[in-house]
Amino acid sequence: MGSCRYNVDSSKAKRDSMFDPKDYIRTVPDWPKPGVQFRDITTLLSNGPVFRQLIDTFIDRYQPVGLDAVVGIDARGFILGAPLAYQLGLAFVPVRKQGKLPFDTFEEAYELEYGEAILQVHADALDPGQRVLVIDDLVATGGTLMAACKLVQRLGADVHECAAIVDLPALGGSQAVLDAGFGFHALCQYEGD
């Protein structure tokens, strides 16, 4: 077992507003292909107090908003969305890759760098008019996030905001989300990578 290398006291009454996830995210050069700087959040997640601070940071932002559900995108959005929904007392809705949900679904195709993929959500996952947060770990080109937002809209719910730990603004995803009329919030950015 590895030891905890970071000391983050998330039991403080007032949470640390200086928390920067970049301090705990590992950059892996040339993965999955040459020239890519992969932002690995597993180093953030593997530290219990830091993971708690991460979720607490999202709680501080979304607790006063009056949401009905948190939509987490397969798979790392589940890691963030489920504990956030739990702490806020909200429904958690998984948006899954094609073929993973057993009931009637809506689906949305989106472009990948090397082809196309499909996301699905159960047809009864949300009610019309519900206010929803859509969350994932990282936003690059925005295709996955936009597909999830379209699924939420097809169910008649409203996307209050989209959230992520990491934004890669040079790849245009966060701007595409904003241009589509959705709010967007990321805890940190990596410029030019």
UniProtKB/TrEMBL annotation:
It catalyses: AMP + diphosphate = 5-phospho-alpha-D-ribose 1-diphosphate + adenine. Keywords: Cytoplasm, Glycosyltransferase, Purine salvage, Transferase. It comes from the Bacteria. It is found in: Cytoplasm. Belongs to the purine/pyrimidine phosphoribosyltransferase family. This is Adenine phosphoribosyltransferase. Its main location: cytoplasm. Its EC number is 2.4.2.7. One of its GO terms (biological process) is purine ribonucleoside salvage. Coiled coil: none annotated. The lineage of its organism: Bacteria, Pseudomonadati, Pseudomonadota, Gammaproteobacteria, Oceanospirillales. Catalyzes a salvage reaction resulting in the formation of AMP, that is energically less costly than de novo synthesis. Residues 68-169 form the Phosphoribosyltransferase domain. Pathway: Purine metabolism; AMP biosynthesis via salvage pathway; AMP from adenine: step 1/1. The gene is apt. GO terms for molecular function: adenine binding; adenine phosphoribosyltransferase activity; AMP binding. It holds the Pfam family Pribosyltran.
